[in-house]
Design brief:
Order of helices and strands: HHHHHHHHHHHHHH
Radius of gyration: 26 Å
Number of domains: 2
Number of helices: 14
Strand content: under 5%
CATH topology of the largest domain: MetI-like fold
Shape: globular
Number of strands: 0
Structural class: mainly alpha
CATH architecture of the largest domain: Orthogonal Bundle
Distance between the termini: 27 Å
CATH class of the largest domain: Mainly Alpha
Length: 292
């Protein structure tokens, strides 16, 4: 078959293409949805730079006329009068968030790998328990959880904020779903034939293949740990987290309405940064991951 005939054959194939109007409609729809989803963040930023008279103005205005950073200055001044330095609260939150996120993603992934890619007695029962456990709210297990933490002597320790979330089954369920579809059994069998043990297969094949899944899990887990206050287990001021002290500042009444808006923006920054970093990595991984 000549090159000319091949070219003619390829040209004669029916090619589906989107018109300019269809592309514009999709772009307009996504723009509207994106704008709607960004409104709460924009509103928080605008509220944090409003002077007190504009915060309580009637009718309320979305945009600010006379922006000011007095609200952030007020938060800084209030933090200077604390018994414990502000840096201690920041350290507690960062330590809990980073260590807890890394530990939970690793534990959830290690638990999901055998449940999705191995056969053993009781696998169906354990998988069912993981799904059923998603139905329980923290309020349901709060009393039993406090008794266990108290009996283990973990009150007023970092462990009281780190260990309870490790029992969450959302991460295990998420990783199971991705591992079942993203990791072919033939690849694992080939690795075992080549002499790779299960640890090498897990860290060298499974985890890179499900990178979008554990990056997604990083976003949710970091947000959970960052918002942890530990008020049920932490009574020592030196162990409290940043959301706790900033929440106390926000509860100061109408006189601190501007400071409350600034606090909301401050607490939003780390999760948004983590989301932006993970989102770019997820997009790149989804575009380039695959078996060829």
């Amino acid at each position: 078959m000549s090159l000319k005939s091949v070219f003619r054959r390829e040209k004669s194939r029916v090619r589906l293409s989107r018109s300019f109007g269809g592309t514009f409609a999709i772009f307009l729809f996504l723009l509207i949805v994106g704008t709607f989803m960004a409104l709460p963040i924009v509103y928080s930023l605008v509220q944090s730079v409003k002077p007190m008279e504009e915060i309580f103005a009637y009718p309320p205005k979305f945009f600010v006329k006379h922006p000011t950073f007095d609200n952030y200055i007020q938060v800084y001044q209030l933090c200077q009068n604390l018994w414990v330095p502000l840096s201690r609260y920041v350290f507690n939150s960062l330590f809990i968030s980073i260590v807890g996120t890394v530990a939970y993603v690793l534990i959830a992934s290690m638990a999901a790998f055998p449940l999705s890619k191995h056969r053993f007695p009781g696998k169906v029962i354990i998988s069912g328990i993981i799904v059923w456990a998603l139905l329980f709210r923290p309020e349901v297990t709060g009393v039993a959880q406090y008794i266990i933490i108290s009996k283990l002597g973990m009150i007023n320790t970092y462990w009281s904020m780190l260990l309870p979330p490790m029992a969450g089954t959302f991460g295990v369920f998420l990783m199971m779903q991705f591992m079942e579809s993203a990791i072919p059994d033939s690849v694992l069998e080939a690795a075992r034939i080549d002499g790779a043990n299960e640890y090498r297969i897990f860290y060298g094949i499974a985890m890179p293949a499900v990178k979008p899944a554990w990056l997604t899990l990083v976003i949710f887990t970091f947000q959970t740990f960052w918002n942890t206050t530990g008020v049920s287990y932490i009574y020592s001021e030196s162990l409290k987290t940043l959301p706790t002290v900033l929440g106390n500042i926000s509860s100061g009444g109408l006189a601190r309405a501007g400071a409350s808006s600034a606090v909301a923006v401050i607490l939003l920054i780390p999760p948004i940064v983590i989301f932006i970093i993970s989102q770019s990595s997820m997009t790149e991984t989804m575009a380039h991951t695959g078996l060829k």
